[in-house]
Design brief:
The chain is built from one helix and eight strands. By secondary structure, it is mainly beta. Strands 1, 4, 5, 6, 7 and 8 form a six-stranded antiparallel β-sheet that branches. A hairpin with a 5-residue loop joins strand 5 and strand 6. This is Phage tail protein.
Length: about 110
């Protein structure tokens, strides 16, 4: 199966978090050695919110349901780079009237 692409645009101004995975060893004299952990030690996490009519939110939820939290998908993050991401959970809610919302966190994924 081909890798799907997430194309819906989130609400404005998402703020991502970039994390560097490292290993370190501390010594008795206060000295510490730190090194990168693995070849993909830089990861991104993006908490996102989507809003709109019920049909739009159901389309987004259906896309995420197809991935089942384990299958990575392509998404272009707000800085313009396309990468693989996974989404382990999401929260849909009714905001009143014909407005529905869905919040989700996209975590960067890597091919094995």
């Amino acid at each position: 199966m081909a890798t799907e692409t997430f194309t819906w645009v989130p609400n404005k101004e998402p703020a991502g978090t970039v994390t560097f995975r490292t290993k370190s060893a501390k010594f008795g004299d206060g000295y510490e050695q730190t090194t990168e952990d693995g070849i993909n030690n830089k990861t991104q996490s993006w908490p996102l919110t989507f809003s709109g009519p019920k049909a739009r939110i159901k389309e987004i939820a259906a896309f995420l349901d197809r991935q089942r939290g384990a299958t990575p998908f392509y998404w272009t993050e707000p800085l313009g780079d396309t990468a693989l991401f996974k989404c382990a959970e999401y929260q849909p809610r009714h905001a009143g009237g014909d407005v529905y919302m869905l919040t989700a966190t996209f975590e960067q994924a890597f091919h094995p």
